Amino acid sequence: AAGALPEEERCSVERADASLTFPRFLQRFAFSRPVIIRGATDNAVFRALCTREKLLAAFGERPVRLSTANTYSYRKVDVPFQEYVEHLLRPQDPAALGSDTLYFFGDNNFTEWGPLFQQYVPPPFLIPGTKGAYSFGIAGSGSGVPFHWHGPGYSEVIFGRKVRAEPSGEGRSRKSSPPDSPVFQRWFLYPPDKAPHFHPNETTLAWLRHTYPKLPPEERPLECTIRPGEVLYFPDRWWHATLNLDTSVFISTFLG
After folding, report:
1. Which of 96, 144, 192, 246 would bridge with 237, disulfide CB 3.0–4.6 Å?
2. What is the DSSP string of 54-90?
3. pTM score, two decimals?
4. Considering the chain, what is the average pLDDT of its residues?
5. Residue 122's CATH number
């Protein structure tokens, strides 16, 4: 079974280190394939501000806008951040539809959250003619964004991990609260000309349990674990989905 393989053997996304130059990034990755860049930035200061205790102290009474975890239509719900963390930030119900799953990602108030984002060190490379826009989020174990696509961007997990879940639903019973130690992240990606098989109102966890095990090798996505100190770059119009095994604090930089 694929789940029995070590993480590195399951990784099919190329890695590069801080020696990657901008011309090389443009030539090899920017318009053609994803890449994980290791050691290009240091976000220790930002990470220290993203513990459960500090986030609640700074933003607990402020409203946040939650989105549903489906692909094409999004219901929005506004709640105080503390209510989200203490009552809604819980493990994903494997039977729930995406339209019934709420999580906090994007829709950030840059006036209120701006001082936090100013401490984030963004990925090193912009595509010519673009600017970076941040989307910050916190989501419970087993949650994630189902397959979708948009413009190019980067993603980095600050706390928690996004990994490929096994069909048994490993990790669903873990307590869901912003953790205070960094672990890993996992993504699933398909190129623009290879649309994945999925239902737009199916959560990533449900897709992993029901569809992924039946895929022949040639139809499986690119996938990889992202470690602390690494960022994942994905090109324009690449399909991608995520899954949080642990409760995760994460930030994306969208280029547009």
Report:
1. 192
2. HHHHHHTTSEEEEEES-SS---EEEEEHHHIIIII--
3. 0.87
4. 86
5. 2.60.120.650
